[in-house]
Each structure stands twice: as C-alpha cells, then as structure tokens.
Amino acid sequence: MKLYYDPADGRALFTLAVPDDQAPPGVWVEIDDTLHPLDVSAHCVVEGMLVPVENLVAARLDAVTAINEAVGAKRQNFITEIPGQQMIYQAKEAEARAYVALDPEPANLEPFPLISAEIGITAPTARELAQVWLHMGDMWRATAATLEGIRLTAIGAVGNAGSTAEIDLAVATCFSALEAA
C-alpha cells in the first residue's frame, strides 16, 4: 500500500492500494497493508519513514523541557538561587544607579539601606560598592543574553525539526553551547 504525503512538511495525505506501475504521480512511501485503515491525520513521513505525529509533539515537549532545565542550571552558576534573591539583585542595582547619579555623594545613607548594610563587606565605601553592583549587573546581563540566545535558538530548532533525530541534534547542540558558555 502506498501512503502519499506532502514532501514540504511530511504530512500524510491519503493511502492507495495500487501496483507501482499504476500509481498516480506524487510522493509516496510503501507501507504495510496491515496498517489499513490508517488515520492519516495522526501520521507523517519523516526521512522516508511513517511516524505518528504525537511522537514529534512529545519529543518537542521533552526537548524544550530539557533545554529550559539545562539553561536554568547554567544560570545558577552565576546567581544565588534563593527565594527573593532576584528582587534583591534588582533593588541593589537600582539603589547603586541612584547613588552614583548624585553629586556630591550623600553624607546620609538612609535612602540607601542596601548600600548601608553592605559597606565594609563587599567594598570599603558606598561609591565602590555601588560600582561593584553596577558592574555585576552589566556582567549578568551579558551572561543572560548569551544563555537566552542559546536557549531560544535551541527551542527554535526544536520547533522547526522534522524528525526526532533533528530534535536530538538541537538539544545536543544546545548542551554543547552551554558547556562552552
């Protein structure tokens, strides 16, 4: 039995039981007669093989989950992952920006409680501490941009993959890029 399919996307169109020399024009693969009747809407052709569509959908979902988890683990190399810490980082950077914008430096640190709490621990002065926090924010943005680029590129490749082999390649490429980052 012949399964005709759209070569652009592998979508199964219809089946036809005819000898090769009587087959109408089109792109088809030979399938086992025991598969008849076949729900063509639930199948596609990938690399000349009939595969259930659900396999690609499930493989894509699993791949995206693996990619997101791997990127999340890599991010944890650069940030402290405890509840509320991301908000603390953002508040420190905002406080540092406000502090360095003042000229002259303020004598009273009351409007800058996070700077006041950390002077002498991370840096000896309020200005030096603010500069450290601003530098850390810049470094994090650069790292985040790299990791987000890797993540989104991999997810895009998974979404465009026409086979589980292409999905696996997209995930492997992502993991290699994360190791190098």
Describe this structure in words.
This protein has 181 residues and is mainly alpha-helical. The protein has 2 domains: 2-46, no CATH class; 55-180. Helices cover 54% and strands 11% of the residues. It is built from 5 helices and 5 strands; from the N terminus they run βββββααααα. Strand 4 (43-46) and strand 5 form a beta hairpin. It comes from Ponticoccus litoralis.
Structural class: mainly alpha
Query: Major β-sheet, in short?
Result: 3 strands, antiparallel
Q: How many domains make up the coordinates?
A: 2
Helical segment tally?
Answer: 5
For the terminal residues, how far apart are their CA atoms?
Answer: 50 Å
List segments where confidence is low: pLDDT < 50 over at least 5 consecutive residues. Answer: none
Q: In what order do the strands lie side by side in the largest sheet?
A: 2-1-3
Give the strand tally.
Answer: 5
| Coarse shape | rod-shaped
SSE arrangement:
Elements: E1 2-5, E2 12-16, E3 28-30, E4 43-46, E5 49-52, H1 53-75, H2 85-100, H3 113-118, H4 126-160, H5 164-180
Helix pairs in contact: 1-4, 1-5, 2-4, 4-5
Protein name: DUF2283 domain-containing protein
Concise summary:
By secondary structure, the chain is mainly alpha-helical.
List the main descriptive attributes of the protein structure presented here:
181 residues, 2 domains, two-stranded antiparallel sheet, 5 strands
